[in-house]
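Lab notebook: predicted structure, single chain.

Context: the supervisor wants predicted structures on file for every construct in the current expression panel, including those that have not yet been purified. This is the next one on the list. No modifications to the sequence; it matches the entry in the shared construct table.
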Amino acid sequence: MTFAKYLSVILASALKFIGGPIAGLAAGLHWTETAACTVAGMMLSVVLVTYAGVLLQRIVRRFSKKTPRRFSRRTRLAIRIWKRSGMVGIALLTPLILTPIGGAAIAVSFKVARPQIFLYMLVSGLFWAVVLTLLTYQMPDFFD
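Prediction complete. Output recorded below exactly as produced.
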């Protein structure tokens, strides 16, 4: 039963980072368990996207019926973040604004080395997991 609780937190945070602390609170886990599973979920999606990033780009381009817009609102935001603060900015904003999948995809598209992606995303994930988990556990009535 406990494995299922951990797995639910990992999967929730792999898709959307704040989903991990909310799922951990709902499952009745201790905040340290929730934070650890949240980081594990984020890093799971970062590793998957980082290693499959080039392949995913090829698949999307191949099956896309229309030509992609070069400068959409999202790409302009990503370029602005990249120019201002580089990989540090991408990693810090991944849990808050971007999803773990989106942050890793942006890092891959800017051709950042894999070890650097993993390091920055891990540090950012640890920081934000503790902060957001503690905030979630301090305000449980907010999520009811």
